[in-house]
């Protein structure tokens, strides 16, 4: 190869190298711009994409510890009652915040069991707790000023516990969600009674429920309007899969009924404050007498024996006192307007179990 050939060869290589170099530059340029565009997309996406709550999670040693940090009324603390075993207490709070400061709290989740029945209770402090339409509710129950909505869902967990029962309510700006797997709806009320106290029913409502009635468990209340603003409530329980009415009550403002074991036999009686169309206010007590439902009123002779009230008017008619049951004190009251007149009535209290009552077999008045 002479110098001319060598020169030509070198020139050719230079041309090839330069051509490939230009292609490479273009490719690198596009890669750079592509990478930059991708970075811009990620940056814009990060700015526009909604960020989820940035929370940290902490395991809490006890409910007493959580309640002490909260410094206010926290219903979850009642799950530390005898018979309740907690298996996990998890607190989520604002990431970077102070876990001991309730202002940073997001949720508190408590798991455990009560007398062998597993439960989960979620407390949501940010107002974003899960809420379901009340139209889908299994039942709505009132506990004082707290309205509890209960849902029943098929769980598919086991044949023994085919349903998920979930109770939702809000108290002091904390949203509570209490859930259990069970085959019996009364189990969810056991927990609600534990954390909220016994349910109170009020208002002219149908579909309300009362727990542990006459040994049958959950009782459903249905309302019937028998005159303008006057109602009769029918109390239904399940017996061998059938709805059976075991009690009824009259009134104007709403059903007032409580389940109490008055004679200590382990089977609670049902106590109803009733107001009849003629204005007479009377206490009615229902009991389960070995499978036979009986209804009882305070016998007239009891007032004479206990307080010396005869109340026999001219013509032999009997003047009835105003009777009420006080669930907070656990006593019956009777107000006498006859002996000393309406301007100076006399009120007495008594708590003698079933001794004051006279019972008869209950016959349901059909709707």
Sheet-strand content, in percent, reads: 35-45%
How far apart lie the N and C ends?
Answer: 121 Å
Helical stretch tally: 4
* Rg result: 36 Å
Helix content: 10-25%
| Uncertain runs | 1-21, 23-28, 39-50
Q: Biggest β-sheet: count, sense, barrel?
A: 8 strands, antiparallel
Average residue-wise pLDDT: 78
**Count of discrete structural domains:** 3
The SS-based structural class is: alpha+beta
Extended strand count: 20
If strands are numbered along the chain, what order do they take across the biggest sheet? 1-2-3-4-8-7-6-5
Name the helix and strand elements from N-terminus to C-terminus, one letter apiece.
HEHEEEEEEEHEEEEEEEEHEEEE
What does this structure look like?
The chain is α+β, with helices and mostly antiparallel strands. It folds into three domains: 1-50; 55-196, Sandwich (Jelly Rolls); 209-361. The protein is 20% helix and 40% strand. The chain has helices at 3-48, 63-70, 186-196, 300-307, and strands spanning 55-59, 84-94, 105-114, 117-124, 139-143, 146-154, 163-171, 174-182, 209-210, 219-227, 230-239, 242-251, 257-260, 269-275, 281-289, 292-298, 322-326, 331-336, 346-350, 357-361. The protein starts with a helix and ends in a 6-residue tail after the last strand.
């Amino acid at each position: 190869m002479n110098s001319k050939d060598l020169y030509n060869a070198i020139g050719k290589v230079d041309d090839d190298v330069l051509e490939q170099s230009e292609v490479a530059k273009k490719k690198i340029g596009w890669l750079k711009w592509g990478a930059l565009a991708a970075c811009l997309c990620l940056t814009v996406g990060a700015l526009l994409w909604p960020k989820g709550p940035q929370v940290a999670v902490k395991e809490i040693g006890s409910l007493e510890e959580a309640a002490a940090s909260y410094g206010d009324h926290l219903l979850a603390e009642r799950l530390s009652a005898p018979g309740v075993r907690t298996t996990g207490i998890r607190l989520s709070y604002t990431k970077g915040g102070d876990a001991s400061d309730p202002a940073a709290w997001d949720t508190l989740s408590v798991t455990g069991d009560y007398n062998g029945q597993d439960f989960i209770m979620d407390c949501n402090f940010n107002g974003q707790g899960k809420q379901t339409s009340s139209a889908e509710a299994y039942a709505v129950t009132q506990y004082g000023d707290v309205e509890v909505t209960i849902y029943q869902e098929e769980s598919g967990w086991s044949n023994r516990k085919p349903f998920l029962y979930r109770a939702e309510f809000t108290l002091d700006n904390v949203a509570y969600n209490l859930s259990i797997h069970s085959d019996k709806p009364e189990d969810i009320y056991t927990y609600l009674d534990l954390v909220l106290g016994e349910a109170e029913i009020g208002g002219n409502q149908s579909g309300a429920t009362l727990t542990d009635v006459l040994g049958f468990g959950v009782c459903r209340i249905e309302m019937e309007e028998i005159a303008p603003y006057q109602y009769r409530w029918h109390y239904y329980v399940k017996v061998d899969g059938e709805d059976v009415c075991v009690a009824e009550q009259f009134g104007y403002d709403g059903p007032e009924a409580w389940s109490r074991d008055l004679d200590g036999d382990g089977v609670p009686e049902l106590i109803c404050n009733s107001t009849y169309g003629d204005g007479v206010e009377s206490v009615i007590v229902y009991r389960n007498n070995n499978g036979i439902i009986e209804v009882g009123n305070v016998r007239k002779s009891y007032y004479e024996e206990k307080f010396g009230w005869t109340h026999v008017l001219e013509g032999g008619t009997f003047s009835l006192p105003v009777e009420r049951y006080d669930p907070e004190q656990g006593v019956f009251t009777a107000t006498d307007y006859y002996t000393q007149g309406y301007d100076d009535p006399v009120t007495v209290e008594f708590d003698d179990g079933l001794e004051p009552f006279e019972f008869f077999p209950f016959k349901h008045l059909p709707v």
